[in-house]
UniProtKB/TrEMBL annotation:
Protein name: DDE superfamily endonuclease
Alphabetically ordered keywords of this record: Endonuclease, Hydrolase, Metal-binding, Nuclease
Any Pfam family: DDE_Tnp_4
Keyword Metal-binding appears in the UniProt entry: yes
Keyword Disulfide bond listed: no
Domain DDE Tnp4, first and last residues per copy: 102-258
Gene Ontology molecular functions: endonuclease activity; metal ion binding
Obligatory cofactor(s): a divalent metal cation
Start and end residues of each Transposase Helix-turn-helix domain: 35-81
Length: 264
């Protein structure tokens, strides 16, 4: 059996937090003995989430069985997901920001049932692949504030944001929000770029944007740009680049990653 040392870029704070959660859980259950201590289980979980290591590779690397790997991962991910912030908590954080950035992103997924067209809600025509839609709120510097629960990938960003209650919550709190044109009509606090004007009835062509409107769009894009950092940070956790588990577990993975990012 060939083995080699490896490393992963995870903050010590996130590792300590997860170890403490696992240790507290074991105390509650009265567990006397396990193959890995709390720190070992935390490292196992972070290796899976950060690097998307398979159960077989983790089993060999940590000297335990694949069934034990699965059980340890489910326990740790559920603990992390339980500590993910709610939308109300995220709005309280957003109140203290000059503005926030709202954007949607697609997380690819491959384990979707194809029989009877059950995969259709998960197929994104824009990205030409199956996935789940998440709405991301970031601060002006691009730091993550909140990730929404998942919805099937065919869902439009505006519809997803309304279903999660994000649009109503931001408007009610008076939080100035920058978003792309997908969120057109979101309310008084949702700022989107100027859209191309309607057809000119005389010429039958779209009227071009004025020079001033183009400058406004450029400034808007410049302020909205840092929000892409939050999306990139989410997908830097390789478990979310292509989710191999069932769609029913995708929400747990997203919440767990959110907790780890905010703890870093």
């Amino acid at each position: 059996m060939l083995s080699y040392p490896s490393a992963m870029s995870v903050s010590t704070r996130a590792l300590i937090m997860l170890s403490d959660l696992i240790r507290h859980r074991r105390t509650e259950l009265g567990t006397r003995w396990r193959r890995l201590d709390a720190g070992g289980q935390a490292r196992l979980t972070l290796a899976h989430v950060r690097k998307n290591e398979t159960y077989a590779d983790l089993a060999v690397g940590f000297g335990i069985g694949t069934t034990t790997v699965y059980r340890y991962l489910c326990e740790a991910l559920d603990l992390l997901a339980a500590f993910a912030p709610t939308l109300d908590q995220a709005i309280e954080v957003a109140r203290g920001k000059a503005h926030v950035i709202l954007d949607g992103t697609l997380l690819r997924i491959d384990r979707v049932g194809m029989a009877g067209g059950r995969d259709r809600p998960f197929y994104s025509g824009k990205h030409k692949c199956h996935g789940v839609n998440v709405q991301v709120i970031a601060d002006p510097a691009g730091r993550l504030i909140w990730i929404s629960p998942v919805l099937p990938g065919a869902r439009h960003d505006m519809g997803a944001a309304r279903e999660h209650g994000i649009i109503d919550a931001l408007n009610a709190a008076g939080v100035q929000t920058l978003a792309d044109t997908a969120y057109q009509g979101g309310g008084p606090t949702i700022r989107v770029p100027q859209r191309r004007r309607r057809l000119d009835p005389d010429t039958g062509r779209y009227q071009r944007l004025s020079h001033t409107q183009k400058e406004v769009n450029t400034a808007h894009a410049r302020r909205r740009g840092p929000g892409e950092r939050a999306n990139a940070e989410i997908k830097n956790w390789k478990i979310l680049r292509k989710i191999r588990s069932s769609p029913s577990r995708a929400n747990i993975l997203v919440k767990a990653v959110q907790t780890l990012i905010l703890a870093s």
